[in-house]
Amino acid sequence: MEYILYETKGAVATITISREKALNALNSTVLTELGQVLDNVDQNEIRCLILTGAGEKSFVAGADIGEMSSLTKIEGEAFGKKGNDVFRRLETFPIPIIAAINGFALGGGCEIAMSCDIRLCSDNAIFGQPEVGLGITPGFGGTQRLARLVGAGMAKQMIYTGRNIKADEAFRIGLVNAVYPAAELMEAAEKMAAGIAKNAPIAVRNAKKAINDGLDVDMDTALVVEEKMFGACFETHDQVEGMTAFMEKRKVEAFLNK
Description:
6-stranded mixed beta sheet, alpha/beta, 11 helices
């Protein structure tokens, strides 16, 4: 691939958007390659993903303005759909995804981070949805996910003003889960990913689906979703082993993803 690096370390895999000269901006090729790399993740072996950007300056600076500048109305809508389709795949991907945000996360960069399950950032990270200053709206889910994460009022403020915010404010409003010194970010992401990977993978995946699906429906329907995901864990090897180990006061020998 031209712009995507994929590395594995045990049950954890790291996807790096590597277009450093363009601050890892998202063009059509990057979006296509992101989809391709997700197609090739071995979901039997990999139990957590980390998504980050190459270099020390930028996670993803946004969508490629050079590519967008000449789009027609129909082409603009198609480009938005291309980004939304890939980001929705990230959001609904069975395996949890941690965004390790190592710098600028603007426009499409903020939007791709919001598509991940957990967001960790460096203390030099900058977030924003500056699209209105370019004459467009956020187009890769920003108007939808930002409001769900930080509330409609704060989302409208960020989007209407186009103002960037620093890491500490992103943490204060709940946009990110934690802030680390830049030199410690990947270590923290890898440690969290390893902790997730040690748990029963079927249970983790079912929990992700229950949370995601439940957010889109009323509470009564959401509880039925949870009941089904809860019930689906029973009679698996991992449930039997996990509970047997607890009752026998020993450590789990292995979660086998079955």
